[in-house]
Fold this protein.
Amino acid sequence: MSTAVGEAVWAGERREELRRRLQAIGFDEVRFAAIEGANGQGLREWLDEGMHGEMAWMERTAEKRIDPGLVLNGARSIIMLGVNYWPGPDSRMSAGAEAHPRWARYALHEDYHDTIRPGLVAAGKILEKFCGVLETDYRYYVDTGPVLERGWAARAGLGFRGKNGMLISRRFGNWLFLAGILTRCQIEPDAPLRKKPLPPKEAEPAGLLCGKCTRCSEACPTQAIPQPGIVDARRCISYHTIENKGIIPRELRAGIGDRVYGCDVCLEVCPWNRFAQAAHSVLLVAKGGIAELSLPELLELTPARFAEVFRGTAIKRVKLAGLLRNACVVAGNVAAGQGGTSIYLPQLVKLAAHESAVVRAHAVWAVRRIADDAGLLAEIRGTEKEVVVLAEYEGPV
Ligand code: SF4
Ligand code: SF4
């Protein structure tokens, strides 16, 4: 371990110079926190309650998330970095125009893991040159590793954890990608937003600057925020349309509305977004064309078209079957909302015979939601063998 890591404390003007150099890479926020005290006590309870759904990787990495020393032995500081992705007030992103399903705003960019990573590589080089650390003295993550980014960002004063569970910045509202660099460097920490210091063993509470506001939990279409700061993934549209690879619980499908990938409701209703500024970071690359895709185009996606349209985006990870599943749910909801019109029925009936049982199940549901007409599906039903699909032919929709 180098002398700089072992002894120096990066404070005052040297710390500010480090901040400026990191900002110059393209990070809109650069804040520092000391690795000490508690962060993530709530995680264990959240996992114990099963609120992570099928995200078993969260359980496997829980100890590391709670104790960064297990990720980087001897870590003393964490550099929290934010990249603003607010598209601006005139953007059509997530507009939800008729026949244009809604997408979470973050997804309408080239995959942020890929575009932010070069910034983290550059940040590492700055640490090596400026602080004299070795490559082994730091580790970086952008939503990919066992780091509780929101908790550390709150600790570093980058913002506060809202009752919607998101990190909310006073400068950028709810629209920040977060990345973190754990380092053995000792960097003087920034102050958190709270005025009174917390006892050393207490974590930053959720809702510090929410006041009496409850807009996010009230607006959530599927009642997925049971307590301030706690999101129950098992009820969350973001989880079900992105992380869940199987059947979406029937009772939640209507709440999905026209959201085909992710959900921004609890972010966009937040009054702190009044400070949001249009994004300009070079670490972000907007991906045009996705928000313009119509619902019929989505229902017609082929493997080749899916690969072409979603290449380089985070959306490609749900794979074609996941996106078709979501599009079926949206079609069922949109058509039902229009009084049971049938413009999507031919496509949905076709998808009821898709090779993926998950797609078939949601297509059957959508057909029945639009037109509870057994005749449309009679022939296909005769060939169906999968229990999960057969179940969709029965019961309420
Ligand atoms: Fe509710 Fe959507 Fe927020 Fe999930 S992302 S908690 S479904 S508003
Ligand atoms: Fe807090 Fe209101 Fe924003 Fe929810 S909507 S995070 S309660 S300020």
Notes: The chain has a mean pLDDT of 91.
